[in-house]
C-alpha cells in the first residue's frame, strides 16, 4: 500500500501574510523558500500548437479534424495546448483581468472580508497560509465556486462579503465564467472527437451538469525569484483547466524532461488536461505537470477556470477505451467529491496525486 504524504499544517490564516510588505524585503521569508529540486531553471520555450477554434465552432468538419489532430498530439505528449478564436465577446477577457487587479488592489482589511473559511472552497487567501506552514506560494488568490444558472453565485458571494459597492466585481466575473463554461463544453466535444469516440459528444454530455472553480491569481514582485514559486509543481486534480494569462511570463510546463516556458500570446487561452480527465481518457491523455514562477519587478496576473464533473458522478472512461486484448482500466471508479475531499484534507497536489489517490481509494474501498 502506498503511504500518502500529508503536509503539516498550523494555526495560521491569510491575515498573517502581507505581500505589500513582503515584496519589498530583500530576503524571502523561510516559509516561502522552495526546495532546490523544485527550482530547476527552465530551458527554452515550449512549442505548443495554436488551435484555431473558428472552424470547429462553425461546424466545418475539415477544420474540426485539423483542430482535433493538434489537440490529440499535444494531449498525448504533455497535456497542454493554446486556443484562439474561442468566441469570447470582445474586451471581456481584458475587463476580467482589470477587475481582478481592482480586487487585489483593495486594502488588506477589505480583501480579508472575503477571506476563505475552512471547509469552503470560495474566498481570498494569501500564500495559502491557512493550509500549510512551508513551501508557501508567492501569490494571492481569490477562488470562487461556479454553478451554472441562477442564482448568480459569484456575484452573491462577493456582494455578501464586500457589500453592494463592489457588486460590479462579481458581475464581471460571473459574465467571464459563463463564457468560460460555454467554452469548456465545446472543448469537451473537441476532446471526444480527438480521441475518435463514436459518440463525439460523450465528454460534453458528461460535463453538462458539472460545476467549476474560478480562481484569480495575483503574483507580486519578488526580490529573490530564484528562491520561491508563485505555484509549486503540480497537476490539476480537476478535468480541464482554461487559463487566461496577462503579458508577463510565468507559466512553465514540464515536457521532454525539462521545464519549458509557455509564453503569453495575445488573444490565446491555455488549456491544460487535469487528473480527472486523464482518468476519463483511461490514461491516454496526459495530465499537464506545470508550475508558476515569479518576477523580480513585475506583477503577474492570471484567471483560471477549472472544469469539474458533478460531484457524485462516477469517473468512468468510455467503454471503447477499455476494449481489446491490451486494454485495461488504469484507474478505479471514483467521484469528483472523493478526489476533491482527498486533495483538501492535507494532501498537497503534485504529479503523483492521481496515483496516490487511486492507491488510497483501493485500500479503503477494496470492492469499489
TrEMBL record:
Domain of life per record: Eukaryota
PROSITE patterns: FE2OG_OXY (PS51471)
Domain spans labelled Fe2OG dioxygenase: 209-309
Keyword hit for Lyase: no
Keywords assigned by UniProt, alphabetized: Iron, Metal-binding, Oxidoreductase
Keyword Cytoplasm among record annotations: no
InterPro entries: DIOX_N, IPNS-like_FE2OG_OXY, IPNS-like_sf, Iron_ascorbate_oxido_reductase, Oxoglu/Fe-dep_dioxygenase_dom
Family: Belongs to the iron/ascorbate-dependent oxidoreductase family.
Protein name per Swiss-Prot or TrEMBL: Gibberellin 20 oxidase 5
